[in-house]
Design the sequence.
């Protein structure tokens, strides 16, 4: 008998989901919502009628119209154009910070779980990171680095490392105790062979679900930090800073805040629906 023969057939070692779940039900709705926002952000230079910093003469806090779909702000800038360009900033942050935090967390979880002392040290560091609420962590990082996109990326990465590190650790400890993994170990399989062939592949499904959840959380983190003035620096637009500006001018222009709020809701709901669809497929 060889090591390959002790590996269970596909579908018996773990429940597997198919990307087909994204083509129906809540998976389809979530995918459409995310793709709509992503398309709007990518096409912003062509869809936006004005530049994000362009000041339009005589257009001070105008209401929605055929010329300005979401009106204008207090310094005569087109809100619709700023929302489109703000989406681009948020997408860069989300699709950079979350995968980076996930990759670092998974790497740390994989390596430290194999060694008892390293595992203890890593878990205590994770405890320290998880002890700080994200906003408090953001304030601390901002005090050290100053506000900006880089600060938001660092905060999200630090927040996601312990989440993914502990998730992969839990999966590895569960899979490592399964009979076919023990059989491979008895037959002489090394640690890294087991990681590559058994442990990591069987941990990918919960990690994918968490990735969708973390992306929705990252949208909230950016919005919250920028709303508090700790994130993207003006005049560069982001969804959080636009919500802040809209709240400040809510009495003069009530529609101002609706544009960025709707986009944030679409992104958060879309990512959550996708992760729920994947999780539901795993349980089926």
Sequence:
């Amino acid at each position: 008998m060889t090591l390959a023969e002790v590996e269970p057939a596909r579908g018996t070692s773990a429940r597997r989901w198919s990307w087909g779940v994204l083509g129906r039900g809540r998976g389809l709705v979530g995918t459409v919502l995310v793709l709509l926002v992503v398309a709007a952000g990518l096409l912003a230079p062509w869809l936006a009628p004005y530049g994000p910093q362009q000041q339009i003469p005589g257009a001070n806090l105008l209401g929605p119209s055929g010329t300005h779909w979401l009106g204008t702000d207090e310094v005569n800038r087109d809100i619709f154009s700023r929302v489109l360009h703000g989406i681009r900033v948020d997408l860069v942050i989300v699709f950079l910070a979350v995968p980076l935090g996930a990759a670092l967390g998974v790497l740390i979880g994989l390596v430290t779980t194999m060694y008892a002392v390293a595992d203890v040290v890593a878990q205590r560091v994770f405890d320290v990171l998880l002890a700080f609420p994200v906003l408090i962590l953001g304030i601390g990082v901002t005090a050290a680095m100053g506000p900006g996109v880089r600060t938001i990326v660092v905060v999200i990465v630090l927040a996601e490392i312990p989440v993914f590190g502990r998730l992969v650790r839990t999966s590895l400890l569960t899979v490592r105790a399964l009979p076919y993994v023990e059989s491979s170990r008895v037959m002489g399989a090394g640690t890294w062979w087991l990681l590559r062939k058994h442990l990591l592949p069987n941990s990918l499904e919960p990690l994918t679900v968490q990735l969708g959840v973390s992306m929705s959380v990252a949208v909230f983190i950016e919005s919250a930090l920028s709303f508090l003035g700790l994130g993207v620096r003006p005049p560069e637009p982001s969804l959080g800073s636009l919500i802040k500006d809209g709240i400040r001018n809510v009495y003069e222009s009530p529609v101002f805040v609706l544009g960025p709020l709707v986009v944030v809701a679409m992104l958060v709901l879309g990512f959550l629906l996708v992760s729920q669809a994947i999780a539901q497929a795993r349980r089926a």
Remarks:
- The chain has one domain: 19-53+68-169+203-283.
- Confidence is low (pLDDT under 50) at residues 1-16.
- Residues 19-53+68-169+203-283 form a domain with the MetI-like fold fold (CATH 1.10.3720.10).
- The longest helix spans residues 79-113.
